[in-house]
Write a structure and sequence with these properties.
Largest sheet of chain A: none
CATH superfamily of the largest domain in chain A: MazG-like
Pfam families (chains A, B, C, D): MazG-like
Helix content of chain A: 55-70%
CATH topology of the largest domain in chain A: Helix Hairpins
Order of helices and strands of chain A: HHHHHH
Structural class of chain A: mainly alpha
Oligomer: homotetramer
Distance between the termini of chain A: 42 Å
Protein name (chains A, B, C, D): Nucleotide pyrophosphohydrolase
CATH class of the largest domain in chain A: Mainly Alpha
CATH architecture of the largest domain in chain A: Orthogonal Bundle
Strand content of chain A: under 5%
Largest interface: A-B, 71 and 71 residues
Number of strands of chain A: 0
InterPro entries (chains A, B, C, D): dCTP_Pyrophosphatase, DCTPP
Shape of chain A: globular
């Protein structure tokens, strides 16, 4: 399974149901957000420690897996509709962030790069 | 660039900065949501039609690309921390959805599967 | 019903169930986001025009009302826990925005204030 | 400052700038979500304990106040556009939740009402 073949599956799924009319970037951004909201709900009352073992509970693990798949689906679909190469975009972003967050300045700090000094 | 190698880059990036302490699933779910919020802001005042040509404007295109990369980054990082196979999860979800949304019932309808009858 | 009395009701509700332990600002921010996600889901496939008549459908109207109440509940609860005067904060923000968005520059434009020139 | 007078201020602000065209319920739901995302970002790397003292830092306190005001603004504006009485909706919701979450069953538990048994 590659990103490209998953996007192809999602595109066929939409085309077979005449759903392309709904899949504008605006609507897909909303759908992505809605799925993120469902994912967040699973974690909202857990402590950070509890969240690290969430997959030990089969019921919760299945929900996490399903919601993350939904987020991924809308993200891939949106990238496809926008003709945006998501893997390339992320690889580029990681490079940019290497410059913004030098390891010796950012070590152990959750600050934004604008606050790192240097 | 595969999902696995991007996850490896993100893991190294975090390890080099001693950021693993911040990357609990709970915190990553929040970060994912925050990035989705930034993505949605680009589209909030656009009409659906305007949203389909958002990539024609280089300034907006760069913002969309960057925010989608951020969403993707936190999604991949979260999957890695949870040891969850995102591509497998999505492939499985598409199969489940084929059963929930039969093409002949779902055609042209944006309803939830519970409302499709059949 | 005032904001203060609603906050008092929400505080009692939480106290009676020993839920104060869960109501940290971090957790409440997550819960707020989760409810926003459910609200967005109602609107994601609607056109902007369809969204303006969403209250004509009694089933959808009830969902909108319920999700907006949930968003409001977590927002009020969070403000209460942070001892933040939400009405004062908003009144102040409106004043600030009068300066950022002069009517003669912002008329009919959905741009951020940094792009308004002047 | 009451909800009604704040909504009146927000409506005038929009009318003076000819922004009513942008304020469809769909768009306002997106804007609300975007502001929630900015609020969540403040808390994403904080521990729950750190989040309880977020207002002790004047810089962070100002950001929290501003983002919560923005969330409140779009929630009030959306309720106004939908002609929905937010205070009544919340008061009703609290009553419904008293039935769903009996204190003796829900005490100290962050479970959904469907899991409370009883």
């Amino acid at each position: 399974m590659t990103i490209g073949s998953l996007q192809q599956s999602l595109a066929s799924f939409a085309a077979e149901r005449d759903w392309e009319q709904f899949h504008t970037p605006k609507n897909l951004a909303m759908a992505l957000t809605g799925e993120c909201g469902e994912l967040v709900e699973i974690f909202q009352w857990l402590t950070p420690d509890e969240s690290t073992t969430v997959m030990d509970d089969p019921v919760r693990a299945a929900r996490v897996r399903e919601e993350m798949a939904d987020v991924f689906a809308y993200l891939l679909r949106m990238a496809d509709v926008l003709e945006l190469d998501l893997e390339r975009a992320l690889a580029d972003k990681i490079e940019v962030n290497r410059g913004k967050y030098p390891a010796h300045l950012a070590r152990g700090r959750a600050d934004k790069y604008t606050q790192l000094g240097g």
